[in-house]
Amino acid sequence: MKKNFELLGLILIVGILLISCNQNNETKLNSQTNFESKFTELTGPYLRQKPPGMKAELFAPDLFSTEGDHGGITFSADGMEFSFTISTLIGQSLVEPTGAFEKLFMMYSHVENGHWTEPEEFSFTPARRSHYYLFFSPDGKKIYFNSFRYKTDPPDKSSSFIWYAERQTGDNWQWSEPKQIDFGKDYYNEYGLGGIYPSVASNGNLYFCHATNRPPSLFMSRYENGNYSLPEELDGALNEIDGAHPYIAPDESYIIFDNEDLFISFRDKNGLWMKPQNLGKSVNTVYDERRPFVSFDGKYLFFASNRINPELPNEPITLKKLQQLINLPTNGFRHLYWVDAKIIDEFRPDNFK
């Protein structure tokens, strides 16, 4: 009799565990489904987010992970595609779903049948997961990005180069295998690296930054007869601030870059870059603001910032409250912000307005 009760008890325990596991799996599945529906149910430009004002705001805080470090975001010229980079911070790791890891993920989404697709990696990225800083060309035919692709295993982080892929004919959402941009032996002999954070003007000229054993500086390579020229360092007035991560206006009339804060410089009537101006308190904080991008419709300035929440409760914090604070977007990770691009006009010289 005792053995029967023990067997019955064991069956009940196993049954409870199975029910519990099923409930947990169902909860996870529902959570994943709800997460996906946040994107797949959205229609309209900029993921149907309420437009920002003249002071920077978090962009779509409910749609992006609050535990990853966002490297920046870019939209295509028609607003039907976007890409962003997410990674873990140095010394920190994400743990789901297969254990701790530290990688770069270049995510991509587009509008299909009127709805945004769930962001996923490009077909050419999973082998390395070392791609970042994507930029759509103004004509929509190419994407440019950085990668440690095909160098070493694991990738040598000193060997990042600029690559590009072309849109496949007949399929708007498929891209060719990437090709590395060759700036020529003279450039590599002097600087070693291929540059980072590509930004492309309407005429194809390619802007990027460079930092190797020296302060960061901004460069431009002219696009001539289907090839890229030997990169030129931008003139001295611009590089006095040691700028990095440039965004170039499609008509090359202004450039925005970062050095802890975001700065803007306009071209004068002689085509020379004017003294950079700090974009001010509507954009910048005591924390880092980096990696600017202006939407091609000229409406919004996007950037990444690691600003944190300066206010904490005075009373003792419970574990639950602490977990909530850690999961807030203002948790010290770098996240995506946007602001009305009219702020640019506030810094434009009077004779250029």
> What does the average pLDDT come to?
78
Main CATH class of the largest domain: Mainly Beta
H/E order of the elements? Answer: HEEEEEEEEEEHEEEEEEHEEEEEEHEH
Overall radius of gyration: 24 Å
Low-confidence regions = 1-36, 93-97, 152-157
Helix count, per DSSP?
Answer: 5
Task: Tell me the major beta sheet.
Answer: 5 strands, antiparallel
Number of strands: 23
What's the architecture of the largest domain in CATH terms? 6 Propeller
Q: Assign the structural class, choosing from mainly alpha, mainly beta, alpha/beta, alpha+beta, or little secondary structure.
A: alpha+beta
General shape: globular
Span from first to last CA? 93 Å
Helix content, binned percent: 10-25%
CATH topology of the largest domain: Neuraminidase
Share in β-strands = 25-35%
Number of domains: 2
Structure description:
The protein has 2 domains: about 1-40; about 50-305 and about 335-350, Neuraminidase. With about 350 residues, it is an alpha+beta fold. Residues about 1-35, about 95 and about 150-155 have low confidence and may be disordered. The strands form 6 sheets. Strands 2, 3, 4, 5 and 6 form a 5-stranded antiparallel sheet that branches. A 4-stranded antiparallel sheet has the order 1-23-22-21, with no helix packed on it. A 4-stranded antiparallel sheet has the order 7-8-9-10, with no helix packed on it. The longest helix is centred in the first third of the chain and has 39 residues, at about 1-40. It is built from 5 helices and 23 strands. About 20% of the residues lie in helices and about 30% in strands.
